[in-house]
Each structure stands twice: as C-alpha cells, then as structure tokens.
Amino acid sequence: xxxxxxxxxxxxxxxxxxxxxxxxxxxxxxxxxxxxxxxxxxxxxxxxxxxxxxxxxxxxxxxxxxxxx
Length: 69
Known about the structure:
- The chain is mostly helical.
- The protein has one domain.
- Helices cover 80% and strands 0% of the residues.
- It has 2 helices and no strands.
- The chain has helices at 5-30, 40-68.
- The chain starts with a helix and ends with a helix.
- The model has no long low-confidence stretch (mean pLDDT 87).
C-alpha cells in the first residue's frame, strides 16, 4: 500500500515537531558547555530554521522512497 502525499507530510511533520523539542532542549544543555550563551528567543529561532530544513528533507526523502517502491 502506497503512502499518500498528505500522509507523507503528516508523518514528516510529526517527526520534525518532536525533533524540534529535542533540538531546543539539546541546544539549551549543550551550548553553555561550549561557552555559547544565547537567549531563549535565539534558541527557538535557530531550532525553527533547522526544523524547516528537516521537514523539507524528511518529506522529500519519503517521496523518493515511495517512488522507488
């Protein structure tokens, strides 16, 4: 059974939303270890940029693998 484009996007979005939370928590824990001090707003913005890139990557890879199947 093939996955629809809509369900590919839903799956990718769910994966990325969870990843966003993990990324923010990781940044807040790891950045200070390396002497990087930024505001929470900057943490959220950096996380958002990487989240958008991740969402696009996840969706595109899902579609490639669906096409290969």
